[in-house]
Design a protein that fits this description.
Oligomer: single chain
Strand content: 25-35%
Mean pLDDT: 90
Structural class: alpha/beta
Number of strands: 13
Helix content: 25-40%
Order of helices and strands: EHEHHHEEEEHEHEHEEHHEEEH
Radius of gyration: 19 Å
Shape: globular
Strand order of the largest sheet: 2-1-3-10-4
Number of helices: 10
Low-confidence stretches: none
Length: 311
């Protein structure tokens, strides 16, 4: 008789966070007969503070701190996040037990009707709170006005499509993964080419956190871990870590696995997009982190330190 197990999963309350957590729970149940899952809902500081850019109020950790506290206190067994939202430094006592799949890594443009980024008129207001997206938008179209925009995926799309009084946007840029997971593809005006908008490290992948000493959960998560994706994102996040990890500079990276080899393309930009330092490197999949750190060292040797702000 199969052993009955229960996993308590912590999740933020947005539709996207719920989709991500339920997807992981379904994977776990499909791999383990008799396993049941329960959701524990959280509203994080990042969800509550919507009137200021993330970089001003504490960065990515604002979306994870409450769930990590619940993990440490054994109130939940796992927490599911968009990997790009996780700081590179793993908190004490917590580990990433699984990297689950990866959706399309590209960003998308949402507009009120125009078909592409090149079609936006000079001075058009594009919403994003990402330093990376801001810099790469301005590198491609320095005549645009880039303005901070906060809220969940649906809110940001609504601000563009329907208007929002004091906050008027002609377009916004979002991760395509979130838009497609919410089945809102009809709102996409353009999938932005990687040559224009290289993604954030880890974009499109889901990360499952658990306690580092929880052998039962670690074993369950090992069964759903995607090794090629883990290698790719390990290189990307090592690049970010090699640059300091906590900095708010515009940083992008994409690892592309091919059998036992891995190709990494990464960049650091000035906040205004005026200067971009791009590096590319190849190596073995099992040396993914080393590949990312070496790429970061090359970027620093070429002057990337000028763009980094570690305050």
């Amino acid at each position: 008789m199969a052993q009955t197990l229960q996993i308590v999963a912590g999740t933020r309350t947005s539709r996207l966070a719920l989709w991500q957590t339920e997807t992981v729970c379904e994977l776990l149940r499909s791999n383990n007969a008799g396993l049941s899952t329960v959701l524990h809902h959280f509203t994080t500081t990042g969800d509550k503070t919507l009137n200021r850019p993330l970089a001003e109020i504490g960065g990515k950790g604002l979306f994870t701190a409450e769930l990590e506290k619940a993990l440490r206190e054994s109130d939940i067994d796992i927490a599911v996040h968009s990997l790009k939202d996780l700081p590179v430094e793993e908190p004490a006592g917590i580990t990433t037990g699984a990297i689950v799949g990866r959706a399309d890594v590209r960003d998308v443009l949402i507009t009120g009707g125009r078909s592409s980024l090149i079609d936006l008129p000079a001075g058009a207001v594009v919403g994003t709170s990402s330093p990376r997206r801001r810099a790469l938008l301005l590198a491609y179209r320095p005549d645009l006005t880039v303005r901070s925009i906060r809220g969940n995926v649906e809110t940001r799309i609504r601000k563009v499509v329907e208007g929002d009084g004091a906050e008027e946007y002609d377009a916004c840029v979002l991760a395509g993964a979130g838009v497609t997971r919410l089945e809102m593809e009809e709102q996409i005006s353009q999938w932005l080419p990687l040559e224009v908008m290289l993604p954030a490290p880890g974009q499109g992948a889901l990360a499952v956190q658990c306690r580092s000493d929880d052998e039962r959960v670690l074993q369950l998560l090992a069964e759903i871990d995607n090794a090629p994706v883990r290698a790719a994102v390990s290189a990307e996040r090592a690049f970010l870590a090699g640059l300091g990890g906590g900095c708010s500079a515009p940083i992008a990276a994409l690892g592309v696995p091919d059998g036992d080899r891995l190709h990494l393309i990464a960049l650091v930009a000035s906040v205004d997009g005026d200067r971009i330092i791009q590096v590319e490197s190849d190596g073995a999949v099992d040396e993914a982190e080393g590949l990312g750190f070496r790429a970061a060292l090359e970027a620093l040797e070429r002057g990337a330190g000028d763009f980094l702000d570690h305050e």
